[in-house]
Design goal:
Strand 4 and strand 5 form a beta hairpin. The strands form 2 sheets. The protein has a 5-stranded antiparallel sheet with strand order 1-2-3-4-5, sandwiched between helices. By secondary structure, the chain is an alpha+beta fold. The protein has 7 helices and 8 strands; from the N terminus they run E-E-H-H-H-H-E-E-E-H-E-H-E-E-H. It is globular, with a radius of gyration of 15 Å. 33% of the residues lie in helices and 33% in strands. It has one domain: Gcn5-related N-acetyltransferase (GNAT) (Aminopeptidase, 3-Layer(aba) Sandwich), CATH 3.40.630. The structure holds coenzyme A.
Length: 181
């Protein structure tokens, strides 16, 4: 299970490996990506991607973090995963796609596979998500997946060193299953 990969029509979602670190830094370190994420510093420091990847195996084993490298023709273009959000006592969906690959449906396609993994393999009853109100593309991804808004509030953003208006959402397994039929 710890080294599980997922396949969709166009994508392979696989565990990150140490050799991905330089490309992770290049892609997630772009301001247009970093600024929409809660806990990623900007500028993205050397060594952080290596450190982040080195923790994945233990985090998966502990059930805390299930990050998947999103690849097209063996090329890393982003990350979609599930991770524990201690503040919310919930597993949440997180994702980013390199700007050069936006608007092609990749985030939605990858997230569908990861939700299937969460509800099926992990047996979760519900999965949370959050996005900044200004991030209409992310709101659209979550709406396409069937997420339902549960509240709004100020959400931290490390890259901006600020609190940003955000939206909280949830998708239950029952709703997910009903939508698939
Ligand atoms: C959000 C993000 C993952 C979307 O990736 P993507 O692969 O382009 O997403 P998809 O193509 O699957 O879907 C995007 C949807 O948003 C829509 N969209 C894009 N920009 C939009 C905008 N400014 N306003 C409204 N809708 C928009 C697209 O038209 C598409 O919807 P459609 O299929 O109905 O046409 C990507 O923009 C990203 O990585 N952004 C930076 C990091 C980030 O925001 N992560 C999520 C944090 S909550």
């Amino acid at each position: 299970m710890t080294e599980l990969s997922l396949r969709t029509e166009r994508l392979v979602l696989r565990p990150f490996v140490p050799a991905d670190a330089p490309r992770v830094r290049e892609l997630i370190g772009a301001w247009v990506v970093t600024r929409m994420l809660a806990r990623v510093p900007y500028p993205y420091p050397p060594g952080l991607a290596e450190d982040w990847i080195s923790k994945h195996t233990a985090q998966r084993a502990a059930g805390e973090n299930f990050p998947f490298a999103v690849t097209v023709h063996n090329r890393l273009i982003g990350c979609v995963g599930l991770h524990e959000e201690p503040d919310r006592g919930q597993i949440v969906l997180g994702y980013w796609i390199a700007a050069a690959h936006w608007g092609l449906g990749y985030a939605t396609e990858a997230a569908r596979a990861v939700l299937e993994f969460g509800f099926g393999w992990l047996g979760l009853a519900g999965i949370g998500a959050q996005y900044y109100e200004e991030n209409q593309a992310s709101g659209r991804v979550l709406a396409k997946l069937g997420f339902v808004e549960t509240g709004r509030g100020m959400h931290p953003c490390l890259a901006r060193n600020a609190e940003v208006p955000g939206v909280d959402l949830e998708l239950t397994r029952d709703f997910w299953i009903a939508k698939q039929v």
